[in-house]
Design a protein that fits this description.
Helix content: 55-70%
CATH topology of the largest domain: Rossmann fold
Shape: globular
CATH architecture of the largest domain: 3-Layer(aba) Sandwich
Strand content: 5-15%
Number of helices: 18
Largest sheet: 10 strands, mixed
CATH superfamily of the largest domain: NAD(P)-binding Rossmann-like Domain
CATH class of the largest domain: Alpha Beta
Number of domains: 2
Structural class: alpha/beta
Oligomer: single chain
Radius of gyration: 23 Å
């Protein structure tokens, strides 16, 4: 592993240079990778592995999307039990609540020496609640891409890759780590950093509920509503809340960090951001501490299993997402996205060719 300085702390990471694709293919030669599920992460990982030359099959209940992606029934698309029986690496990629429900089916079809692969530490870290307790005669490993399945695939196709964490929970064969790293390279990781199943799930649940999704959405709504209540139009409120962040400022952060973004904004913006940052930190720090405590104690796990395990969860989720999408802020966002210059040019070119309709991101 390469030794990298992360802000003054030395950490070891695995790069493509030291673990190239040729090595990954050699490690997994003769293995059959069975992707179980075809929801969020599974399509991206399955297609990336297939495109990289690995022997991949898919096992899922609903074959519609898998067949659209080119998987063929009886050749590389099977029901779940058959896929597990055929596989030597079992990538268990259904939802966390789904893993609890499906585990008895997976467990009874595992074979000695199989590698049981996860992309989230949830089921193992909270095994007292999930009852996902692997047999002693299999490897238990994890590769957790730091992004949605959509971006795992997009980044792969663009050649960018995506960073992933990895962990070995159980090494039965003596090859668990090299299998894990080979799979991490195979799914398109730019580099891999070590963790544990517990650390991964604690950081992941905190991040998703916090700055990555929950906090971001909540803070956006708070600013948008404040601007609207003070007489600003929907377009102005959305541009100042979301559009400038996603289309301009966050790209500067991505390039060289927050200080780089501050340095490339106006002095008025710099001064205001530096003055108000401590106040936002003070306001939100208690919320993050409460959130982490709920993650660590298993309260969030209990919430996920109870809510997401309901038979009508999909209908309830659709209703919540519809409410979110139909809010004024995100309806305004839909209009703003259509007006982006790149979408205007797409609209012009398609109209010029006699094609009706306008494309949008």
């Amino acid at each position: 592993m390469a030794l990298i300085d992360f802000g003054g702390t030395q950490e070891r990471v695995v790069t493509r240079a030291e673990f190239p694709m040729s090595k990954a293919r050699k490690v997994l030669k003769g293995e059959t990778i069975a992707i179980i599920g075809y929801g969020v992460q599974a399509p991206a990982q399955a297609l990336n592995l297939k495109d990289n030359g690995f022997n991949v099959i898919v096992g899922c209940r609903n074959w519609t999307r898998a067949k659209q992606d080119g998987w063929k029934p009886g050749k590389d698309l099977f029901d779940i039990e058959e896929a597990v029986r055929r596989g030597t690496v079992i990538q268990f990629l259904v939802s966390d609540a789904g893993q609890k429900a499906l585990w008895p089916t997976i467990r009874k079809n595992l074979k000695p020496g199989d590698a049981l692969y996860f992309s989230h530490g949830f089921s193992i870290a909270y095994k007292e609640q999930t009852k996902v307790i692997p047999p002693k005669n299999v490897d238990v490993i994890m590769v957790a891409p730091k992004g949605s399945g959509l971006n795992v695939r997009r980044n792969f196709l663009s050649g960018a890759g995506i960073n992933s964490s990895f962990a070995v929970f159980q090494d039965f064969t003596g090859r668990a780590e090299e299998r894990c790293l080979a799979l991490g390279i195979g799914v398109g990781s730019g580099y891999l950093f070590p963790t544990t199943f517990q650390r991964e799930v604690f950081s992941d649940l905190t991040g998703e509920r916090g700055i990555l999704m929950g906090a971001l959405a909540g803070v956006m709504e708070a600013q948008y509503e404040t601007l609207r209540r003070n007489g600003h139009s929907p377009s102005e409120a959305f541009n100042e809340t979301v559009e400038e962040l996603t289309q301009s400022l966050i790209r500067l952060v991505d390039e060289n960090g927050m200080d780089w973004m501050f340095a490339n904004c106006s002095t008025t913006a710099q001064r205001g951001a530096l003055d108000w940052k401590p106040q936002f930190k003070a306001a939100t720090l208690p919320v993050f501490r409460k959130l982490y405590k709920r993650v660590k104690t298993g309260a969030e796990c209990s919430r996920v299993l109870k809510a997401c395990g309901k038979k009508n969860y999909k209908q309830l989720l659709d209703a919540e997402l519809t409410t979110l999408g139909q809010s004024e802020m995100w309806r305004a966002g839909s209009a703003v996205r259509k007006l982006r210059p790149q979408n205007q040019s797409k609209s012009f070119s398609t109209t010029a060719k006699g094609v009706s309709g306008r494309q949008s991101n």
